[in-house]
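Summary for the steering committee. The consortium agreed at its last meeting that each partner would contribute one worked example illustrating the joint modelling workflow. Our contribution is presented below. We chose a case with several input lines so that the handling of multiple components could be demonstrated. No manual editing was applied between input and output; the record is shown as generated.
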Amino acid sequence: MRDSAAIVDSPYDPCGAAAAPRKVIHCDCDCFYAAVEVRDAPELAGRPVAVGGRPGARGVIATCNYEARAFGVRSAMSSSHALRLCPELVLLPPDFERYRAASRQILAIYRDYTTLVEPLSLDEAYLDVSGVERCRGSATLMAQEIRARIRAEVGITASAGIAPNKFIAKVASDWNKPDGQFVVRPAEVDAFVAALPVGKIFGVGKVTAQRMHRLGAHTCGDLRAWTQAELVAEFGRFGASLHRLCRGVDERPVAPDRVRKSLSVETTYTDDLPDLAACRAALPALAEDFGRRFARLQDAAAVNKAFVKVKFADFSQTTVERAADAPSLALWLNLLDEGHARRARPVRLLGIGVRFAEETDVAGQLALFDEAPVPDGRTGASV
Ligand code: DCP
Ligand code: MG
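What follows is the complete predicted structure of the assembly.
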């Protein structure tokens, strides 16, 4: 029999069907690499600054400060294009050692509040602070304090989103960026998510978003008109997640011990690649993007497999993998030939990657770049 105390302890769920809402903070530093550069060269303050490769040598912008963004400069843009947009841009080469040092300091601050810290990249992490008693148990105050400490101890600024789950916390951290935070309380989730453009949903990239627009769905609220079966029929397995996410439901736990098992990049093409030759021609660009991400890995574990993922125009998907001890374009091309032959029809998405040996000690790898996979229109690295 339940006692009355138990009922008082569960104000959101007197019937015991679900737990009380969680408190998740998503912290994301503002223009991270550029912020570290400006911190270390104060004479750059107020000037447009970017970190990236040299123009000409197919260099791209890793990031830039907000002064440079005012000129239209963006991450992943070619450095030569960035310099055309903003001729006075100060373009600096990356110095990962200093970024990693800042990242370690920031992580230590997060871990002062909770052990449930899940880093997503050097500058970004989820914190589950449910039940944490600091700051009178207020996640809003904790986020404020964390951001103040990052400013004081690391010398850069960060933004935060505070919400009952990861999806909403991540969207919210962008709301008052830079140097701000935004709270979505449990009672506000429904309205907040209803108004979100579909492109904000984790996993919905440019191509899927365009497709949803054509089907008349622009916001998460619009998507709610679809049954789960309809979403699955239209978007495959992802449809079931979509059905939950467009209602603001995201049960993914904050997982502090995620182990990097793989690194991959993938792109969904705006126009399907018609045949194998077109797929083969698309692979070097993916391999180049992969190479950049692979180079940023710190203490990367030993590679033991390479794989290629092919998603066909009908959304059927196949993955081919083979033992390998290093990334190799030649091997990826072979795997592509094999995967493509399985269906031999137009292709909407290609992905390439490697898997890492599992016995490797990953303790030092938590602060790696492990952006969630971004299935559409752009590439992402995944764990
Ligand atoms: N990064 C990169 N290439 C990209 C995107 C990001 O090398 N295409 C690097 C540089 C960024 C860091 O990762 O500083 C963090 O990425 P974010 O997406 O969080 O971008 P920023 O922190 O730079 O800016 P924002 O203020 O938008 O978070
Ligand atoms: Mg950032």
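Residues 276-296 form the longest helix (21 residues). The two ends are 44 Å apart (CA to CA).
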